[in-house]
What does this fold into?
Amino acid sequence: MSGGDIAGLIAAGVFAVLVVLLAVPIWKLGKVFDELRGAIRTISDETTPLIEEVTTTVSTTNLQLQKVDGISSNVSDATANISALSSLVAATVGSPLIKVSAFSYGVRSALSARGAKSRGRRSR
It folds into this structure.
């Protein structure tokens, strides 16, 4: 064996040790990727039902909001009708009440003026 053969054997041995030392981290990195793939699969499997549940909740909420919108519309119509009825009652009852009030004021004024005149005649 010559010096070149011994140097070749030493280089081959160092290369084999280097390959073994690098194989361990690569093997561990492969296991990390397997765990990562499993975690992603688990997240995907759990997210799909959650998204379906959220979709159902949003649909149900949308239906409830449509019902509330209908109720709000009906309340608005009822408020407008009550306002119109209130105006009608005020116009119907208010005008005669004003006339009765004015008439009673006129009668009181006339009676008090008449009473003042009759008292004025008695004092003379």
